[in-house]
Fold:
Amino acid sequence: MQYAKIDGLRCTAQPKLKAICEHCNGIVQAKCGSKIVWHWAHVAAENCDNWYEPETQWHRDWKNNFGQDCSEISIVKDGIKHIADVLTKENLVIEFQNSNISSETIMERELFYDKMIWVINGVHFKENFTIWDKEFAENWQLKIEIIQNLKLSNSQPGARVLTVQGNQIRHEAIKKILNKHKFIYSRQRDVYTYDLNSMYNSHVLEARIQANILELYNSQKIDQKLKSIIYSWTRARKSWQDAKKPVFIDFNEGYLIWIKTNIGYNRGEGTKVSKKDFLAKYNITE
Ligand SMILES: [Zn+2]
Structure:
């Protein structure tokens, strides 16, 4: 815990201090090591909230964004008490989840808090999580195929040919990129072709084209406040499949990913929300 009471005042842990837990009135002792986040720990072996998760700097930073008055708030329901990480002025509980948790725990907390959202620390699985702008994936990215032995160009029988279907190109500027890379357009078949005979490694060419398109896309500065994204999540944390409340993932960037579909699955859609907007929405001070 970040806060406990000394003489009735909320205090943060300082070396050698003891205080009273404001949730159970038990005695807590300051834990102030050089390698830990300074916190209060119950002198009695058990924490008064069995949902307690060891506090990390990540928790601490998030709670500090909301301030002392909204952090570590006791919520009692049917005689059972739990400590919400954050309770906003609009009575929304925000749970900051650093470690992996079971689907039972997720469901139990959603039932208890009811009006709540999750923010999970995505830093632990960042390498397994890929994000594309939906607009880019749907309207800019090209499907470049290698076709063999088709009479699409002047190439020899059996030769490999790179092809792009004209009808999948949504932006005129992409056609110019293909022309620049010496693709030949057949109006009759509505297809762009590139003869691979002399091309040692077609992946290099493909990568260059996709890079040019990405550059072009980025230069358009398509700037939506809430940007739709598509994600792939390798080794997705399956327990989140049972979450019904909104889930935001924090990758320690300037934005959060609000998962809109398929939380806990390998692929789905979401929305990129800047941290600034997230805080402005939930951190209502008055
Ligand atoms: Zn306590």
The helical segments are 57-66, 103-113, 134-139, 172-180, 202-219, 275-282. The first strand starts at residue 3 and ends at 6. The pocket of zinc ion is lined by residues 21, 23-24, 26, 42, 48 (CB under 6 Å).
